[in-house]
Amino acid sequence: MNLSTAFLRLAVLFAALGVSLGYFMGVTHDFTVAPVHAHINLLGWVSMFLYGLFYRAFPGAQSGALPLIHFWLAVLGMPIMMAALAVQLLGVGALMPFAAIGIIAGPTMVLLGMFLFAAIVFYGTSAKAAAA
Hints:
mainly alpha, 5 helices
């Protein structure tokens, strides 16, 4: 499976998760984890779907180590960040030390992945890449 397909499939899983969480919050009238819901929808559904579309439109951009690093930073950083944020928002005392680590590690991975993706987009859409 190529990166485009992997990102597109993960994106729809995150969409289903985000919508389900939103549904649950609406039914229970408890919106404590609304920031988790928002991040799952934006970073999980929208960003990963856009990554997949970019790699589909520019298949040459999928080759090499950098796109794989981008994939793993995005795929691992998101759940770490979401779990840590949920623990922090819910105030789960016993897990707070892990949340403190996750709230740094997860967003850092996502941020590095986004910067890496920016470099991949700039290189993948350059005249040099188009000539190759």
